[in-house]
Each structure stands twice: as C-alpha cells, then as structure tokens.
Amino acid sequence: MFRFAINDAASCVRSNVKDFSLNALRFLSQLPQLSPYDVNLVLRENEFVFNFPVDGIIRSYETNQLGSNSPCEDSRTEASLLHRNGFICGIFDGHGGAACGQVVSKRLLRYVSAATLPRQVLRDQVKKGCSSQSFLKCHNDNVDFVSEIKPIYEASFQKYIKQLCETPQRDVASELVHAFLELDDGLSEEALAVSDLRTMGVALSGAVACLVHLEGLQLHVASTGDCGAVLGILDPQTQQWTPKKLNIEHNTENIGEVRRILAEHPRQEQETVIRNGRLLSQLAPLRAFGDFRYKWSLDVMQNKVVPMFGEHAMAPNYYTPPYLTARPDVQQHQLGPNDKFLVIASDGLWDFLSPSEVVSLVGEHIDSKKILEPMRLPEGDNVTLKQISAQLAERKAGLTRKPIDSNAATHLIRNALGATDYGIEHSKISYYLTLPKDVVRLYRDDITITVIYFNSEQIAKQQSDKALGA
Q1: What phi and psi, each to the nearest 5 degrees, are found at residue 49?
Q2: Block mean pLDDT (10 aa), the chain, length 470
C-alpha cells in the first residue's frame, strides 16, 4: 500500500522532464517503435466530449486521461447541477495508491452540489428522502462504489446534509471550503469506526483536488494541493491569448504555504517538518485529502495504524500532528465575453507545459478546428465571387494547420509528450508510451485534463440583461 519512497524518487526525476537529452533520444532505438496509428489509439483511448444546449453559458467540455501508474491514480468527474442551472467538475490526483482519489472524485461533487443549493430547496429534498445522487447528473461516470462500502458513504452524506439544513446559508466560497473539510473528516471517521482494510486504505492514501463550480456567470475554483487551473482570455483587439491562473499550488515552491506550516509547529521541529522539499521528508503536496498518517494523533497512529500496517506507516519525526489539511484555497471569477475556456489538469501536464503554453495551444486548436467545420457563405444578398474566392483561399491555407486531434485535451497531451523546437516528434511520443511499466513513472506522471469552452454570446447576453435589470 505504501509507495512513498518510489513516488518521491519519481517526483525528483520528473522535475526535469523538459530536458529530453541526447541520451534519451539514443535510448529510443532500444524501445519498440509505435506506428502513428498505434500512438493515436493510446492517446485517444480515454477521450470524452460533452455538448451543452446552445443557450447555456458552457458550449462543451473535452477531457482525456493518460495513465502512467498502474492503475492510474488520477480521477475526473463532471456533472450538471440539478434544481438550478450550473456545472461542476473536478480533477483528482491520487498518491500512495488510487483509492482516495477515486472515492473523493465521486463524493466531493455530491457534497458541493448539496451545499451550494438554497437551504429551503435542500430541506424540501431531504423531506422527500433524497440520496447523494439527487443533486447532480454526472456525464462521464460509469462505475459505482462496492456494495459493502456504499451504505457507509451514504450514511455520512445524510449526516452532512442534515447538518447543512440546520445552518444558515454561506457564500459559495465558504460552502466549498466547508464541503472539502467535512468530506475529509468523514474519511477519517469511517476508517476509524469500521477498521476495514478498504476504508483504511482510502484514509491512508491521499489525493489533491481542483474543483470548478459554475452557476450563472460566477466561476469558483477550489484547489487543494498541486493540480492547476488556467483561464484562456482572448483580447478582441489584438487577438492575442492571455492566461490567468485561478489557483495557487500548495507545495514547497509556495513560500507562504511553507511559512504557514512552520508556524503551526514548535521551533524545534523547524528542520524536520519540511525536508528535501517534502512534508516530513515524504509528501510533495502540502495539502491533500486523506493521508491521515500525517493528520491523526500519535495515539491513533500507534494503536490503530501501526498494528495493522507496521512501523513503516509512521512518518519520521512525527511529534505534533496534524501536519496536513484538506482545506482548499478558493478563487472567484466573474465570466466576461473575452473568457473563452478554462483548463484544469493534474500536475502530470504542468510538468511539461506552462500555463501560457497551455493557453496558446488550446487557442491555436480553437482556430485550427474551424477548418473542420462546414464552409458558410458570408451573410447578405450581395455576396460576390471575390468574397467566396477569398474565403476558399483562407480555408486552403488553413489546411496546413488542421489539427491531428479534434479533442483539445488530447492535443495538449500530444504536445506535452512530443513537442520539440521543430514541431511534434512522433518518436518522442512513442518513447514515452513504450517505457516499461517499472520505470515509466520516473519519466512522466498520470495526466488528466478537462477543457471547458464558454459561450461568449450567452455571457454577453446575461451581462446585458443584468445591466438592464439593474
């Protein structure tokens, strides 16, 4: 269950993934060469696209996942909010096993969808005997919890919504923070109450999370750990793309986060709380769900965890827990017509590409996909042959920019693995996809990406309607 030493070593190596050296290129000849057809099969295996009604704030979203770990430790969930017009999605990057990420990816959206519902509507639903699935409609979720564990999770959810019904409505950001913390507390209580290997496995593995909540024009991003979210903004005058980060990673590059943790522990622990860029020399993200081996009291660790899993389950220099929290930072953004898309992704993508590179790639992909759409003649009754000829010439020139992938998430993965100064290098992608299972984690992490496209016309309309109403 515990693979922390391996994960730490992998993180150290992957910090230099951009340095695709000559030695690595020479190594290509020692690996089987995948054909372009085979590469496409692998890259597109987990693609998913969902289109919304034309009068919505979101046009569509595209998502994809490429695993490195076996099984993949990333998870993703997307859903429409019921009982009001809204959308919610998240990406969850697990570590120390896939269990925590898989469980949180399904449960967190349910907690948030209930918490952000008006209290009176929530109370009415509770009276009707609602379940945890009564508040959202998932679009890309084909699995469920095992029958023995499902009632435990449902009981925790019912306890949570009854608590909500008895408390005043908070603003969305506060409800998001509360939902994160309540779910994390539930993971702890379930593991300690049942002492089942499965619930304990969820509690002792961990996951970072990036969750997006959109209702009306109000966009909230709640982030715990080191996933990333970036907004793509198009300047209407210059037609240039600008990235806007909507979260801050919780790792040792975040000086404020390091200071926060150090301030929570005695001076004599200043040299051991964070060592070698990791919490207690082991964990790279400084906030996460689960990972209760960094949260539980010494008494719980010694009497519950060590007898079940052994002394190695206790982190070194474990004196004044908790050292870790699932509390998210929440950023709010009001959408405008220039906001064209939002990309959220696990750190497997950000190991290779910067936010500005990601926004540029998706922006170019949007432009290039226009070539795939049917040609439309200019509006009006006085269309000239010259206008049609110019439009045909533009489309012909655009054929050189025709994208290999229709899915922007796949486009990003392809560029992450294959980009060079001279374009996409097929042999480089083949190299990353054919690395043996026992070493691939040293060169690339799981990559999970969701790209959400906004409807600029509807955003402008809602802004106009709101201004007129005011």
Answers
A1: -130, 140
A2: 34 42 52 86 97 94 95 95 95 95 96 97 96 93 83 96 96 98 97 87 96 97 97 94 96 96 96 95 97 97 93 94 98 97 97 96 86 63 74 63 87 95 90 90 95 96 80
Q: Which residues contact 28 (CB under 8 A, 6 or more apart)?
A: 427, 428, 430, 431
Reading the block at residue 432, the tokens are: 């990353």
Provide the whole-model pTM: 0.88
**How far, in whole angstroms, is CA 463 from its chain's centroid?**
28
Retrieve residue 316's tokens.
């070194």
And the tokens for 404?
């290999």
Distance CA 30, CA 430 (A): 12
- For the CA atoms of 323, 326, 327, 333, what is the dihedral angle to 10 degrees? 140
Of 290, 324, 301, 305, nearest to 183 by C-alpha is 290
Torsion from C-alpha of 292, 293, 297, 302, nearest 10 degrees: 130
| Nearest-angstrom CA–CA distance, 349 and 353 | 6
The token pair at 389 is 């000829």
Torsion angle defined by CA atoms of residues 187, 189, 194 and 197, in that order, rounded to the nearest 10 degrees: 40
Structure tokens at 410: 């796949």
Residues in a beta bridge with 81: 86, 136
